[in-house]
Design a protein that fits this description.
The protein is mainly beta. It is globular. The chain has a domain of 125 residues.
């Protein structure tokens, strides 16, 4: 188990990328729903470019397995699984079909990030509320400084809040984050994750 600066396991911050579709938050009576849309006139409460939530996580290795379709047959099929999930369940919980999973992982192992204890912020957080270590000297001697975060990572990076608590910030496209926020998607698939995860 990896621990953050305060002795707790690091949490994930889920960042909604800026591209379409727009991710909208709608408070309807007691229900909170999230909608993805490409319509420009509905962007008043868009969550794109913000961090709308945080969560705990569990990480599993995704393995590529192979089995024969028929006894003593030359035909075989590859499929993905984890220690706890067969491919069907992995696809269902990640909102991918088997072809999409295969197209993304391209016959390589991957990582299944199980999203746990999702907490939706009342007010989405901005990137500039966090800091990141930035390399300032490109000689052989490596020097780093803490700087305000002004650009989201393509995949993920470590960030710190104002209380010096360490998080993993992960960028997610709006259509997938919409499914996470609505409780449909419980696993995020990645080819690689950060070392301390």
């Amino acid at each position: 188990m990896v621990r953050g600066d305060r002795g707790n396991r690091m949490k994930l911050l889920l960042y909604c990328t800026k591209g379409k579709p727009y991710l909208l938050r709608e408070d309807l009576s007691e229900d909170l729903i999230f909608i993805g849309t490409n319509k420009d006139e509905l962007v008043g409460n868009s969550l794109n470019g913000t961090i709308p939530c945080e969560c705990d996580y569990e990480l599993e290795e995704i393995y590529l397995e192979e089995y024969d379709d028929y006894n003593d047959s030359i035909y075989s099929k590859t499929y993905y699984e984890t220690k706890t999930l067969q491919e069907d369940d992995l696809c269902k919980q990640s909102c991918l079909n088997a072809d999409e999973l295969d197209d993304y992982l391209k016959d390589e192992n991957g990582k299944a990030i199980h999203i746990k204890n999702l907490k939706i912020f009342d007010k989405p957080k901005r990137l500039n509320e966090f800091t990141v270590y930035t390399r300032v000297n490109y000689t052989k001697e490596k020097r780093y400084t803490m700087q305000m975060l002004n650009k989201a990572p393509q995949n993920m990076c470590y960030v710190w809040n104002e209380h010096n608590v360490k998080y993993v910030l992960i960028s997610i496209h709006p259509e997938w984050l919409c499914k996470i926020l609505n409780g449909e998607k419980k696993i995020e698939i990645r080819k690689k994750v950060l070392k301390e995860m």
